[in-house]
Amino acid sequence: MLVKTKAIVISSLRYQEKSLIVKCFTQSDGLKSYFVQSAYSGKKSNQKIAYFQPLTILEIEANHKNKGTLEHFKEIKLATAFQTINTDVVKSTIVIFLSEMLHHSIHEEEKNENLFTFLETALLWLDTHEETSNFHLILLLEITKFLGFYPDNSDTDFKHFEMIDGIFSPFQGTNCLNEHETFLFKKLINLKFDSNQKVFAGIERQILLKILLDYYSIHLDGFKKPKSLDVLKEVFS
To answer: DSSP label at 127?
Structure first.
């Protein structure tokens, strides 16, 4: 079936010498993998590869056979040409890290237009704003809404957050955050992208990032921590 849709590049893997296998989160069909032949050959190879940088937003026309095999692009163009993400070292590091997180988090080949719209809107915000220190933390927490394990924040007066059930608790059980960690987590829940970026110190962001990674690990089978995690920590240290 010939499909025209927007797609966000989640990952690209070099196959043999000249080709790529590209995983995209599409607006029309959720997660799809595509085979790009001769991506590294020909005069326009640099242009081809540029399409498949992490979290690039594309407009594609593709043949979807929906048989569990690799699909093929018919036409590709940029839906949005980022102005700063690819040239700002902090933003590009954030994007590489988040693409790995999404790669290990989104597995369903089914339409999820709300998640697509959220990711697209968030990336456009990142590209057009300078103060982005908390962006990755807010985005990772917000994505749990779409993945089904957003924290139940009906009892935020309690001093501990229980990681397995995703609830706030008056007692510190085995799988609970301590009071300080819970305090930081509550502050994160209340943040928006436009909130004051100086609400956390660097060490507090590191604590929150560890909490979020642990939270994902608990709730997603087979979740792997991104290889780019150390680079992200270095950028925000």
So the answer is: H
